[in-house]
Design goal:
The chain is built from nine helices and six strands. The protein has helices spanning about 40-50, 60-65, 70-85, 95-105, 115-125, 150-160, 175-185, 215-220, 230-235; strands at about 25-30, 110, 135, 165-170, 185-190, 205-210. Helix 3 (about 70-85) runs parallel beside helix 5. It has two domains: about 10-35 and about 90-235, 3-Layer(aba) Sandwich (Rossmann fold), CATH 3.40.50.1000; about 40-85, no CATH class. By secondary structure, it is an alpha/beta fold. It starts with about 25 loop residues before the first strand and ends with a helix. A six-stranded parallel sheet has the order 3-2-1-4-5-6, with helices on both faces. This is HAD-like protein. One of its GO terms (molecular function) is phosphatase activity.
Length: about 240
């Protein structure tokens, strides 16, 4: 796929003959991206304890593997934990500034999360009232990340395109980076002390420490990192 690049969102900085893509939209994860990740440190452990599974087992994969009659009971068990965590939601630093900037530049905003709808709605109505996010893809949409299906669905809704090459996926996990990468989108890692090892991952194009750092990057023109030979080989597999 090479280096992911987008032309500057500031029209005054665009050069004549610039063949870089024009950014059409940004897709965001929720937990650890739009809101701080503090609840996650205990929430996932609580979920696995409620379901009786180990850390090595993916929570949603486990639920979907259950007999149909047991899936809703398991879903409600983890929803209860997520509802309790809503009280601890705090906006990520730079959240309001970045969303205001994207709105001012007419850039579409969407969400692709493995969460369910109530915590997402709580975040948006509490911290971003009046800021439009559409589509909002939650775990009711299957298959979930790291499958690219949710991001490809958003691209189709926005632009009637089959790939995500005109998009950026912003997240904090390997699921986010991999889903974005497989969809053809550029990926931005919101780095923290837990996910710092993903900064050099082949599926990560750019790293920021705070959301509003993206404002200057998008104004001047997005440019991901060079892909090494070893990583190019991995992409072909």
């Amino acid at each position: 796929m090479g280096v992911r690049r987008f032309a500057p969102l500031d029209p005054a900085k665009r050069r004549e003959g610039d063949d870089r893509r024009v950014l059409k939209g940004v897709v965001f994860d929720v937990d650890g991206t739009l809101c701080e990740c503090l609840p996650q440190t205990y929430m996932f452990a609580e979920m696995r304890s409620a379901l009786g599974i180990t850390k090595e087992i993916d929570i949603l994969d486990h639920i979907y593997s259950l007999p149909p009659g047991e899936q809703e009971t398991a879903q409600e068990a983890i929803r209860a934990i997520e509802r309790r965590a809503m009280a601890s939601q705090r906006p990520q630093a730079g959240l309001v500034a970045l969303m205001g900037y994207l709105d001012s530049r007419g850039v579409k905003k969407g969400i692709c999360t493995r969460n369910f709808d109530a915590p997402v709605e709580h975040l948006l109505t509490t911290f971003l009232p009046g800021s439009l996010f559409w589509p909002v893809v939650t775990r009711e949409f299957r298959p979930p990340k790291p499958d690219p299906a949710g991001i490809l669905h958003i691209a189709k809704q926005w632009m009637h395109e089959d790939g995500g090459e005109s998009l950026i996926m912003v997240g904090d996990s390997i699921d986010d980076m991999t889903a974005g990468h497989r969809a053809g989108a550029a990926t931005v890692l919101l780095v923290n002390e837990v996910n710092a090892h993903l900064a050099e991952h082949a599926h990560t194009d750019l790293v920021v420490e705070q959301l509003d750092q993206l404002i200057g990057i998008l104004e001047e023109g997005f440019e991901g990192r060079e892909v090494g030979e070893e990583e190019k080989t991995e992409e072909k597999l």
